[in-house]
Design goal:
The protein is an alpha/beta fold and 179 residues long. It has 7 helices and 6 strands. The longest helix is centred in the first third of the chain and has 20 residues.
Length: 179
């Protein structure tokens, strides 16, 4: 538990320090319901956002300020964010992580055939985030923001990021969960 507490303190300190000069820039991996709404709302609050998705259609929609999903007021907020230069979108996850301070991981977590949560996309995205962090010197915070079982942030995301990056949790990067 001490490592977890230390990690959150380190992450909070990094974000606070970044926010003193300017708000941290944020990448959002996955532009479905959770990711697209997070991207639009955080841009509305003044954050510079980079949305990432494997779907070229969703990326184009967000880049053009159009909603990739049906959600009240989302298109209005995306359009505002694009117009103000606060929202961009790409299929290049590594570039998005390299150009931001915080990454929200909002990928799909479908139900597996046995009824459990399929973490395939969480693992894949975590590895890609780790590959980006291997090329980055600055501290980076990874926030898991999808429906997952307890323990996934530390037992899956942190492990995959550390393995792919060669970096140390709490020293080089932090993790958090935002339900």
């Amino acid at each position: 538990m001490n490592l977890v507490k230390q990690d959150f303190v380190t992450a909070a300190t990094a974000v606070r320090a970044s926010a003193q000069g300017a708000k941290p820039s944020i990448s959002v991996i996955g532009l479905g319901y959770v990711g697209a709404v997070s991207c639009a709302c955080l841009a509305h609050l003044g954050f510079h956002m980079t949305g990432v998705d494997v779907s070229l259609e969703k990326v184009r929609s967000v880049k053009e300020g159009r909603s990739p999903i049906v959600e009240d007021r989302l298109e209005e907020l995306l359009s505002e964010g694009v117009r103000l230069g606060r929202i961009d979108a790409t299929q290049n996850l590594v570039a998005a992580v390299l150009s931001t301070d915080v990454t929200f991981l909002s990928v799909g977590t479908p139900t597996a055939p046995d009824g459990s949560c399929d973490l395939t996309y969480v693992r894949q995205a975590s590895r890609a985030i780790g590959q980006a962090l291997a090329m980055k010197d600055a501290f980076h915070v990874v926030v898991l923001r999808c429906s997952v079982p307890p323990g996934t942030t530390l037992d899956c995301v942190a492990v995959e990021v550390a393995a792919a990056s060669g970096k140390t949790l709490g020293v080089d990067f932090g993790v958090a969960f935002n339900p």
